[in-house]
Amino acid sequence: MEIRLAKSYGFCFGVKRAIKIAENASNAVTIGPLIHNNAEISRLKDNFNVTTLHDIHEAKGAKKAIIRTHGIPKNDLEQLRADKAEVIDATCPYVTKPQEICEKMSQEGYEIVIFGDANHPEVKGVASYAIHGAVVVQSVEELSHVKLKGQKVSVVSQTTRKINEFLEITRYLESRYKEVRIFNTICNATFENQDAAKDLAKEADVVVIIGGKNSSNTKQLHSICKEYCEDSFLVEDEHDLDEKWFEGKHLCGVTAGASTPDWIIEKIVGKISKIKV
Ligand code: F3S
Q1: Ligand 1 atom at minimum distance from 92 CA
Q2: pLDDT digits (tens, 9 = 90+) for 217-241
Q3: How confident is the model at residue 269 (pLDDT cuts 50, 70, 90)?
Q4: 117-130 burial: b if 16+ Cβ within 10 Å, else e
Q5: Looking at the structure, do residues 200 and 249 belong to the same domain, yes or no?
Q6: Containing H/E element for 2?
Q7: What residues are in contact with ligand 1 under a 6 Å CB criterion?
Q8: Where are the beta strands (DSSP E) in 220-268?
Q9: Which residues contact 33 (CB under 8 A, 6 or more apart)?
Q10: How many independent structural domains does the chain possess?
């Protein structure tokens, strides 16, 4: 039986990059979790002594601080520098971009609108770069209750938002304000995994989806695969595999949710490759 991995699966570029940075840094702290994956955070702690702090107040006296993928507020960054910590930036470049845009556009006199969740760390960080603050909204309905002061508006999006919803926001702004600068800062990584899973499921006669059973993006991958390949199974670890799934099969597709580390995927692929069909 041939085993084929999806063209895009598991951790996105920004998360993989951050992990590499943390492994190379070692003996460092991060303000908030480096990435959203507990197993990986524990592995970094055990093997590289990378410790997760809850907030900036705990970082006093830290020698080395890694900035997580979602970024941190500008004040926190300045605080670390003032405390003379060595700062290692693992902010995803797709998150740095809207931070830079907010800073530049607000310096040029634009009011800043961010489409996203005001409580999300990424959005808190991005908003902190707007020199006079930012309006954060999740929908046109929310935006309709906001009255901006001037006529110059600049808008960015949280990286994980859907493009059609962002367009609703931009259309609304364009219809009400004289000058609107739109920056599409959405990252396609999540959607790339979904498209690749679909392509794989169309060809495979059994598909294994690896990820947490509570992870919403893993469940989404499972349901996409099931649409195209009835024999699609979600597993958390190698113990969930059932040899019967593979009987008489020729092509086994494998994909993984955005929060599944490579070492879990490798373990499962290794076990599948030993199954006699
Ligand atoms: Fe990942 Fe960066 Fe996109 S962390 S989901 S590549 S914004």
Answers
A1: 2
A2: 788 899 999 999 999 999 999 999 9
A3: very high
A4: beeebbbbbbbbbb
A5: yes
A6: strand 2-5
A7: 12-15, 69, 92, 94-95, 159, 187, 189-190
A8: 232-235, 251-256
A9: 41, 52, 68
A10: 3
